[in-house]
Design a protein that fits this description.
The chain has 562 residues and is an alpha+beta fold. The protein has helices at residues 2-11, 13-16, 56-59, 117-121, 176-184, 193-199, 219-224, 226-233, 238-243, 258-261, 267-282, 290-305, 315-321, 347-357, 364-377, 397-401, 479-503, 508-519, and strands at residues 24-26, 38-40, 75-82, 137-140, 143-146, 152-158, 162-168, 200-205, 210-212, 247-252, 384-390, 406-412, 416-421, 426-432, 436-443, 454-463, 466-475, 542-545, 551-553. It has three domains: 2-60 and 383-553, Roll (PH-domain like), CATH 2.30.29.30; 75-128 and 146-252, Ubiquitin-like (UB roll) (Roll); 279-367, Acyl-CoA Binding Protein. It is globular, with a radius of gyration of 25 Å. Pfam families: FERM_M (PF00373), KRIT1_FRMD8_FERM_C (PF24522).
Length: 562
């Protein structure tokens, strides 16, 4: 019955909201207070107008891929090289410090615009492929002489501190699908091939940009085109873009269904999922209560350090090593880390106590499962992350003078969209797809680097006893990627609901319910569909409209013309 209601809600989006997104609004300058140019916005579209032109399967895996490109078929050899650095902590993304933005990486959806044929063909020598990738074929008369194509080693990084080095023929033409098969054929990994190919895919990532690759993408060509992608989608300065180097990583597919993941018993796959979830926790991408971070840090310490040893695992030890087990905003301030004392409620003391509570009989298998079970309970688990910024509410003259935009992460998964304060690691807004409409707008002056695209998020709330519509603007060069990923997920949910409805036995009562929901007042659908997460709306700059679409509250830099 819940699937039916969900289907009805998705199909009723076109009538659930009054079109309120303006035709024109002021441009945004990256982290600067004001500007006067205008955006040109397409007419606001409901969910039904977002139609994915490609099958979901073809859009899976469109995001990360750094370092070298993956070659096709035959694998000459594969070797595993343990890396000294743990996971991807070194890939912590940070925004341009000159512009007061902080670190945050962005994840892109499987949209064809990320790396289309035009962009791939435009890949020049700005970020040239390895010089060893050269090959030529020449024919004279009826005879063909083929010069042997050099084999370029490909390095793929896993979150469990393993670097897989492979040599694949014709590297420049190898697709993501071919490379994934080569990884799964590696005996040293010993992964369940049928399951792992569904759970994981290749990403190309750097501190400035993260992209999940489609199966048909050619990592080598994307690496060649990386400079162009970074210029288009990152907020960093030109010098940082020139220094940016991506890596190719094997990690969770953003399109893999969580309910299927929770049924996995294969320990090697669970270990890879644990390592990836751990990095998201340590980087503050999964906002939690401090007590939850302490609990997870204790489990991680037990897995990595073994049972408690009073001779080694002291308060001083965890004071020095706490950054390995806790995200930065939970750790003790580095300013006071030199003090040899710790308060009773300090992070290192609580971490040690949590570590000591874990029984000696606990196995790593059980601890990994417990860690993942908590992460699975988080509504933003498995999200792709995008960089963005939102306007800060102006509260008084002083805040107007020191006004700056807030750097945020936009987390998008198969169920919801979340806006996360990247500095404080707190959720500012969380919306299920049934609770929102969205739209994407390009700036009117696309050649202006200070004029940012925008993602609109529209949702209903109850304010002073009345239902009103709120709109949040997220400014980001990655707004088009967010729009594509949301579109893909919504389209997939619609297809799934239609399929479930077709397979469901006919019931006259349910038919009447469906008809009633379609003909009822669009603003009177179930109150449970209103945002229920503890959203921090007071920290957001929102524009408010009544049920008829009339502006009743304006904040920020919006400029309307009717």
């Amino acid at each position: 019955m819940s699937d039916v209601n969900e289907s009805q809600q998705l199909n009723n989006q076109s009538t659930s909201y009054t079109t309120v997104i303006p035709v024109e609004y002021t441009r945004r300058v990256f982290n600067t207070p004001s500007a006067s140019t205008e955006y040109v916005v397409e007419q606001y579209r409901p969910h039904d107008d977002y139609i994915q032109t490609e099958d979901l399967s073809s859009s899976q895996g469109a995001l990360y891929s750094v370092s070298q490109r993956v070659p096709p078929a035959s694998t000459s050899y594969a070797s595993l090289c343990p890396t000294e650095q743990g996971g991807y902590s070194s890939l912590t993304s940070d925004w341009e410090r000159d512009r007061t933005m902080s670190g945050s990486e962005a994840i892109k959806n499987g949209s064809s615009e990320i790396v289309n044929d035009k962009q791939t063909s435009d890949a020049n020598a700005t970020l040239s492929a390895p010089s060893s990738v050269a090959g030529s074929m020449s024919s004279s008369g009826g005879n063909e002489s083929i010069q042997q194509i050099p084999v370029v080693p490909v390095c793929v990084y896993l979150y469990n501190r393993i670097a897989l080095v492979m040599e694949v023929e014709d590297t420049s033409s190898a697709t993501n699908e071919v490379l994934c098969q080569a990884i799964l054929n590696c005996d040293e990994l010993s992964l369940n091939k049928q399951l792992a190919i569904q759970v994981f895919t290749l990403w190309m990532t750097s501190p400035l940009l993260e992209l999940q690759l489609k199966l048909i993408h050619k990592p080598f060509q994307i690496r060649q085109n990386w400079r162009h992608l970074v210029e288009q989608y990152s907020h960093a300065s030109y010098n940082r873009q020139q220094r940016d180097e991506p890596v190719l990583s094997f990690q969770r597919n953003v399109f893999f269904q969580q309910h299927m993941e929770e049924k996995i018993k294969d320990q090697k796959i669970l270990e890879l999922l644990y390592e990836e979830a751990k990095q998201n926790i340590l980087r503050g991408r999964y906002p939690c209560e401090v007590s939850h971070y302490i609990m997870l840090g204790g489990i991680q310490a037990r897995i990595e350090l073994g049972p408690y040893n009073s001779q080694v695992h002291s308060t001083h030890y965890f004071r020095e090593e706490q950054s390995k087990f806790l995200p930065p905003h939970v750790c003790k301030s580095a300013t006071w880390s030199w003090l040899p004392i710790s308060s009773k409620n300090s992070a290192e003391v609580r971490l040690l106590e949590q570590f000591k509570r874990i029984p000696h009989s606990a196995t790593n298998r059980k601890l990994i499962r417990k860690y993942l079970e908590f992460c699975w309970s988080l509504p933003f688990y498995g999200s792709a992350f995008f960089e963005g910024q939102i306007e800060q509410p102006v509260r008084g003259l002083m805040s107007l003078m020191t006004h700056q935009d807030i750097p945020v992460l936009v987390a998008i998964n198969s169920k919801s969209v979340y806006v996360i304060d990247d500095l404080q690691s707190t959720v500012l807004l969380g919306l299920r797809y049934e609770e929102m409409n969205w739209d994407y707008a390009k700036p009117s002056k696309e050649d202006d680097p200070n004029c940012l695209p925008c993602l609109f998020l529209q949702f209903l709330v109850v304010e002073n006893g009345s239902r009103v519509s709120k709109i949040l603007q997220v400014f980001s060069r990655q707004a088009s990627l967010m729009d594509s990923l949301i579109t893909t997920f919504v389209h997939h949910r619609k297809r799934k609901n239609v399929s479930d409805e077709t397979d469901r036995p006919f019931d006259q009562n349910s038919e009447n319910e469906t008809h009633a929901s379609l003909t009822s007042n669009p603003f009177t659908y179930a109150t449970t569909n209103l945002p229920s997460l503890s959203n921090k709306l007071s920290k957001l700059t929102l524009t408010t409209f009544d049920e008829d679409g009339h502006l009743i509250g304006q904040m920020g830099s919006w400029s309307f013309s009717y």
